[in-house]
Amino acid sequence: MEKICQDRTIIITGAGGGLGRAHALEFARHGASVIVNDIRKDAAEAVVKEIVDCGGIARVDDFDITDYAACTGAVESAISQYGSLDVVVNNAGINRDRMFATMGEEDWDAIMTVHLRGHFCLSSNAVRYWRELAKGNRAPAARIINTTSGAGLNGSIGQSNYAAAKAGIIALTLNQAAELGRYGITANAIAPAARTAMTTRVPGMAARMARPGDGRFDYWAPGNISPLLVWLGSQRSAAVTGRVFEIEGGRISIADGWRSTKGVDKGARWEAVELDEAVQTLLESEIPAQKVYGS
Questions:
Q1: Over the stretch 97-128, which tens digit does the pLDDT of each residue have?
Q2: pTM above 0.85, yes or no
Q3: Which one of 33, 166, 226, 234 is the catalytic residue?
Q4: pLDDT of 78 higher than 70
Q5: 41 an active-site residue?
Q6: In whole angstroms, what is the distance from residue 261 CA to residue 253 CA?
Q7: What are 57's strand-pairing partners?
Q8: Separation CA 235–CA 238 (nearest Å)
């Protein structure tokens, strides 16, 4: 097997289980040195043992992804031990599901902190390192891989905090791609659908995502997502940046994003009473957004 991430160093957050564990195993299978991050140190240690037992290279780092100084230390430690840092996979996340009318500020703030601040702190430190390499004429083949969700693309009933944070991650990815290409850094996001502890807590999803018992393709297996991340983390993906990939089972697509319609232009200031017809014209010519999940 050709190992497309041979000798590359990867930090994966939230890698003690679910998608993160699958990503860690697949990166290691392709020759990467993997830093397995999780606040559950015992879970991270179990993943590292799996990798090492198969002949791979990995170690645990249970740094807090929302602590900027801790992320600084994680980047410095990776470089010190493995000689470089090539890929950051921002995977860690939590849920605090509530209907918007009953959501409290603690539920809102917890999601924003883990998802948005968590994506910022580690990536920011990695980018500072990569930018210095580029300034020294040692442009890296660096990769940021962010994790969004269909909730961030479409919205999701009972998850306004999560949807807003995941939408923010999409915008962050677009900005990173636009700003960081000059330094040899690409930024892409994935919107995965797979069987994890988070997804199977949603009513009805555990049964829908159950592992088939007859040897058929396990459509919802987390490992189905990971080959795309390995490819994005490799040097083969150098021309691809600023994209959001949706992936589940064996299906990969690209989310097309918001696009402006042709619009109507009066050429002068509108009066409010004139807008009935103008807005109706806009609505008739638009391509409707995909439905909010659960609606």
A1: 999 999 999 999 999 999 999 999 999 999 99
A2: yes
A3: 166
A4: yes
A5: no
A6: 22
A7: 33
A8: 6
Catalytic residue among 149, 156, 160, 237: 149
**219 is known as an active-site residue:** no
Length, in residues, of the chain: 295
Distances (CA, A) of 199 to 138, 155, 196, 210: 41, 15, 5, 11
Give, as one character, the DSSP assignment of residue 242. Answer: S
Query: Phi and psi at residue 94, in whole multiples of 5°?
Result: -140, 170
To the query of whether residue 285 is one of the catalytic residues in this protein, the response is no
Q: Is 213 helix (H, G, I), strand (E, B) or coil?
A: coil
- Integer Cα distance of 15 and 36 in angstroms: 6
Choice among 162, 226, 234, 237 that is catalytic: 162
Strands (E), the chain: 9-12, 33-36, 57-60, 87-89, 142-147, 185-193, 244-248, 251-254
Residue tagged 């920011």 (tokens): 124
In single-letter form, the type of residue at position 46 comes to A
Helix, strand, coil % in the chain, rounded to nearest 5: 45, 15, 40
Q: Identify the structural domains of the chain with CATH numbers, from first to last.
A: 9-254 (3.40.50.720)
